[in-house]
Amino acid sequence: MPRPACEGLGAIVPEFKNLRSPEHEVLLEGVRRGQFRAIARLITLIENGATDSADFLRELFPLTGRCFTIGVTGAPGVGKSTLVDGLAGHYRQLGLKVGIIAVDPTSPFTGGAILGDRIRMRSRSLDPGTFIRSMATRGHLGGLSRATGEVLDVLDAAGFDIVLVETVGVGQDEVEVARAAHATLVLLVPGMGDDVQALKAGIMEIGDVFVINKADREGAARTEAELRALLSMSRRSDGWRPGMVRTVASEGAGLQECARAIEEYRSFLESSPQRSDRAQQVQRDRLLEMARARITEDLLGGAVCAGLVEALAAKVAARETDPYSAVEELIARYRLGAVGG
Amino acid sequence: MPRPACEGLGAIVPEFKNLRSPEHEVLLEGVRRGQFRAIARLITLIENGATDSADFLRELFPLTGRCFTIGVTGAPGVGKSTLVDGLAGHYRQLGLKVGIIAVDPTSPFTGGAILGDRIRMRSRSLDPGTFIRSMATRGHLGGLSRATGEVLDVLDAAGFDIVLVETVGVGQDEVEVARAAHATLVLLVPGMGDDVQALKAGIMEIGDVFVINKADREGAARTEAELRALLSMSRRSDGWRPGMVRTVASEGAGLQECARAIEEYRSFLESSPQRSDRAQQVQRDRLLEMARARITEDLLGGAVCAGLVEALAAKVAARETDPYSAVEELIARYRLGAVGG
Q: Which of B74, B104, B78, B83 is nearest to B204 (CA)?
């Protein structure tokens, strides 16, 4: 067996160090009490990939498990922000503590656009009982759903009853983000073209409740009929028949019905015999995502194999090796690194 | 150090086995000769994650390096398929061998929609000199850009001069797929709303050439002005100033200009002092993606730690541990697996 190239490793099962600095305690206590400033600070640590954020999250985890999370997805322009705003208002009126996370998988650039959305979402942002946060990837491959899961844990531990997770865009990332929520709302609008058919299909499987928004537009009945036809062709393994509601979110119309459809699904989830299967599946997806993010960080960050990825990439670029052999070497060395520790 | 839980490993640096069965040789030779049937079969092996596809790819890699790949991305409805069709026709007229890959990161469901697109793309699919293939993820996290990279290698080795990679949707996945190409075209159409602004921002950084398609619509000049303003706010580290062209792809208008803008970027790339940096960066991203896909397969496929992910997920779901500790254990055991082998 060749001598491992990556050395200088510490113990690979990191001891949970009791770092409890005074600042650490203050931040933790602030989150536990639901203070927005403390929550926002911890989320920033998570977004920046701070290594000690896992320590906080470990300590907060026992407080989690009560919050109900709702993912809201759909093509651009269907009115996700407006619906999220309306639903948040509905839950606030019931006296619940509500969080909103707007997840943007595309780019740092998009900060501005999200801000625009948030400005439109005026009613909520002025309500001190609603915590609103935008998140974007910082170029980390696959890091978004990991970070979203962590932020959901933070808000859960901080005592939020409901968290709405709005995704921008319609790719695989959004699907994963939406799947991390307890319930997933898929929004459509009447009369979109062929390409939207493709989008609809892509997010079809993940919808627990379908919302036809802007339902005062022409074609709402036809869109609903098409949707029912599409849904009737597939059957979910858990036996749930997705709800369907029409809304005009900008006028508040249909919000009660939408909340009721979510509630029905929540009741179904809680009484479902597959309940623990689903919980396990959510955790499995999450562990994989976290492991993938961690391994990428290890490979790039130099903690394990400093420079190895770059060296191999240079060899492939110079055509001294092929990528298929290079990746075998990379993984082998990553795993052998443990021996050197 | 605890006894590793994952045993039964073989050597972790797999020997390159000389499996050369007659079928293996026939398939390889078919790909080398550019036979569409052989190419299609190898792509299917790649899509299905067949373990021996890496053997083929290793053998084909020395033949790669001549093909120029063009990623085409943009929001739904901007006319990507039509532009790709038009550009393919343009390159065919120059006597070049052209491949088209339509990449759909959303779902198996979407096969139908893609097929619809392909049916519209009639002129190309009847041309025996154009190879057309749709690809979708099979539920593998992050597997899409890996598979796309492998298919590009296959087409490169098979002697294609140009491969156009069209992405459906606008998420992080598409960005990664587009980045794997030599040149990336970003399509816009005049007069889209606020949400499109967000999309534009997301894909802004990756565009080497911007195409305002459907430029006969009202607002083309304004869209171009907005785009120029947005682009002027950022400067690329490689010094390239992205090209901008207007097209009406459905009527073939502007295709020459578009091809010329791509050619300019290609010349820039080939004369750029950062040329090798960029090649290395592409390979680095690719290696990481391949490593992530491999590790996920190892974790789920049972080759390394059969059942470990499920067991940990069950423990987290039962709240016997937290996900942050579970992922540490998962990674530690994955790496320790090497010791047990």
A: B74
In A, which residues are within 8 Å of B319 by CB distance? 62, 65
Which candidate from A114, A314, A328 shows the least CB-CB separation from B13? A328
Residue A290: CB partners within 8 Å, gap ≥ 6?
Answer: A146, A149, B323, B324, B327
Structural domain contains residue A76: yes
Q: From the candidates A283, A315, A334, which should be mutated to test the interface with B, based on the most B CB atoms within 10 A? A: A283
DSSP state of B214: S
Q: Do the domain assignments include residue B331?
A: no
Provide the chain A residues 155-174 that lie in CB contact (below 8 A) with chain B: 168-174
> Which residues partner with A163 through β-bridges?
A69, A99
DSSP 8-class letter at B109: G
Give the domain range for residue B202.
64-283
Number of domains in chain A: 1
Alpha-carbon distance of B281 to B285, in angstroms, equals 6
**Per-residue pLDDT tens for B103-148?**
765 543 333 334 444 444 545 656 777 898 887 655 444 456 678 8
pLDDT at B199 over 80: no
Q: Does the beta carbon of A286 lie under 8 angstroms from any beta carbon of chain B?
A: yes
Instruction: Please say whether the beta carbons of B103 and B142 come within 8 A.
Output: no
Confirm whether A332 is domain-assigned.
Answer: no
In this complex, which of A57, A76, A312 lies closest to B196 when CB atoms are compared? A76
Residues 6+ away with beta carbon under 8 Å from B151: B43, B46, B101, B133, B135
Collect all residues with Cβ–Cβ distance below 8 Å to B102 and sequence separation of at least 6: B81, B84, B114, B117, B118, B132, B133, B134, B135, B166, B168
Q: Are B98 and B161 in contact (CB under 8 A)?
A: yes
Dihedral sign for Cα atoms in the order A53, A55, A58, A60: negative
Q: What is the CATH number of the domain that holds B127?
A: 3.40.50.300
Query: Which chain A residues have a beta carbon less than 8 Å from that of B295?
Result: 291-292, 295, 331
Q: Which of A158, A136, A162 is nearest to A56 (CA)?
A: A158
Q: Among candidates B275, B288, B290, which has minimal Cα distance to B58?
A: B290
Contact (CB<8Å) B287/A330: yes
Residue A86 domain-assigned? yes
* Residues of chain A positioned with their CB less than 8 A from the CB of B231: none
* Per-residue model confidence as pLDDT tens digits over B252-286: 999 999 999 999 999 999 888 877 787 888 888 88
